[in-house]
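COMPLEX REQUEST
Ligand: glutamic acid
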Amino acid sequence: MAKGQQFIKMREVRVRFAPSPTGPLHIGGVRTALYNYLFARHHGGKMILRIEDTDSQRFVPGAEEYIIESLRWCGIEIDEGVGYGGPHAPYRQSERREIYLKYAKQLVEAGWAYYAFDTAEELEALRKQYEERGETFAYNYKVRTTLPTSLSLSAEEVEQRIARGDIWVVRFKMPENEIVKMHDLIRGDVEVNTSTLDDKVLYKSVDALPTYHLANIVDDHLMEISHVIRGEEWLPSLPLHYLLYRAFGWTDTQPEFAHLPLLLKPTGGGKLSKRDGDKMGFPVFPLYWVSPTGDTAHGYREDGYFAEAFINMLALLGWNPGTEQEIFSMQELIDTFSLERVSKSGARFQPDKAKWFNAQYMHHKSDAELAEIYQPILRGHGIEVSDQTAGFVAGIMKERATFASELWDLTSYFFVAPTEYDEKQLKKYWKGENPRILSEVREVLAKIESYSKENTEHFVHGWIADMGYSVGQVMNTLRLALVGAGKGPGMYDVISFIGKQECLKRIDALLANVKPIDA
Ligand code: GLU
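STATUS: Structure written out below.
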């Protein structure tokens, strides 16, 4: 890692998140963005958002907006990029198309690349021929001079073909039998023999667009990217990228590379997919998504997760702080994050752990924060109360909630009288002498002036003791009247909150409307 550290000292850290707008952003992509962001902020560097939309076949309308909105929700701040501008604008590759042809030609002139004129049909036929012989066709050093390329055709013919509008591509001329030595900040040294690699297409005349490889390298260079932090699926492209830097003469400023481990299915085998989420009932996307054809997918935001909890969970999927600490604010993540502590092996996604994180964040919310979350829900139920009241009530029950959507069920009885009674509780308590005792408690409560928690507790408990009744018996019957069920916090929290009038009203309602089960 010494090499990487030296590099950081010498150069301003500039990282980029470079998604292709091919659909909703997978949580693996969000994690890539997050690690880039944490790394940038840790080193006082810049975070760039580049949209790689040169593959027009896979472009999905709405995906770019989705990416930007997802990052915003997560609190991943962008310094330069699509939607933000910056000194290297434009940051959307389709708007930079005229830049790339020049670079493709430069490689051809330097002998690092060549024109190829094969049509899709010809290539398909070749593939079939190879298959019939039990072999796999690869466009490489073995065949490139036997096919219609600028390596086999005369310079005049190449010119003629281009001039008359034949379709062509520029392919990289992968050297034969050379060992490319690479360094990855997570994986260490990696070596590949170039004879195992094919001649990748860099540029296509048909749509006058570069492919991923060319656009990615050219832009990383022009945008002065210092570190490329991306998913493991791009590791096989690394030898080509190294060679492209060499071919362009840019090795001096070539970025450092770090390939992040995969996010694995909860069962461990294979990459986490939307199907796993659908099957097991958890989202694999940050936000709700509707595709142009109307397909929908769940999102963490709409499913009630707090952005901070979601980010905290993602940060620990593939990175560990080296301590037992699990709860991290974004600032703490920035302070602690390092690529050295990113693991080499895949990180198994655990849906229950996602919920656990959300619950932790819920339990640590202040009353003021809870009020903000709970007020819209209360208003939805037609309840108008002060922020203080909303926060206070949610605060009493927050320890039992994982999601904000559970708060109403946990606390509705603070605001509305029960309209029905839990059957199990009725069977257990609405019988024998309990109805009579409830009428007696009513009289005690009617006599109390101050309805503070302490005062009501003092009088009611004192009375229960004087009468020699069972505390459990009396309080559970009272709970049935006030809450309608066996749930809820301490009874005196409820009594003092709803006040005398409402208390008596709810007791009267049970006495008047529900016949004791043994009557
Ligand atoms: N556009 C690529 C993607 O969608 C970017 C890969 C990279 O970061 O180099 O993942």
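REMARKS: The pocket of glutamic acid is lined by residues 18-20, 52, 212, 216, 228, 230, 234 (CB under 6 Å). The chain has 20 helices and 15 strands.
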